[in-house]
Amino acid sequence: MTGDVVTDWTCFALGVGAGFALCFLLLRRKRVQTPSVQPLQAIELPPDLKSLVLLYRADGRLIEAIKLVRERTGCDLRTAKYLVEHIR
Fold first, then answer.
1. Co-location of 75 and 51 in the same domain
2. Is the pTM for the entire model greater than 0.85?
3. What is the pLDDT of residue 17?
């Protein structure tokens, strides 16, 4: 606040006007349609693959583990990544 009433009210009016303009522009913005995500496949890994993936993950070789799961199961990248990250 500057103490000058005219300056204070002018700044206030400009701020409110800018807020309304921003809301107007955001509401008119076109929404981008995102493709629907397919649910993950229920895949059970064989015990030998499971132990190998656990070893890779313990060594910090996640990308190689994901590649291995994709090659052996034929699943997509998203499913393989989920399996590698959530395997117990």
1. yes
2. no
3. 94
Share of residues in the chain with pLDDT > 70 (%): 89
Q: Residues 55, 79: one domain?
A: yes
Distance CA 21, CA 13 (A): 12
Does any domain span residue 38?
A: no
Taking the C-alpha atoms of residue 32 and residue 30, their distance in angstroms, rounded to an integer, is 6
The total of structural domains in the chain comes to 2
SS (H, E, C) 26-63: HHHCCCCCCCCCCCCCCCCCCHHHHHHHHHHHHCCCHH
Residues 6+ apart with CB under 8 A from 62: 56, 84, 85
Question: What is the residue type of 77?
Answer: L
Examine the domain organization and report whether 27 and 51 are in the same domain: no
- Higher per-residue confidence, 14 vs 43: 14
Is pLDDT of 57 > 90? yes
Q: Which two tokens stand for residue 37?
A: 């995500």
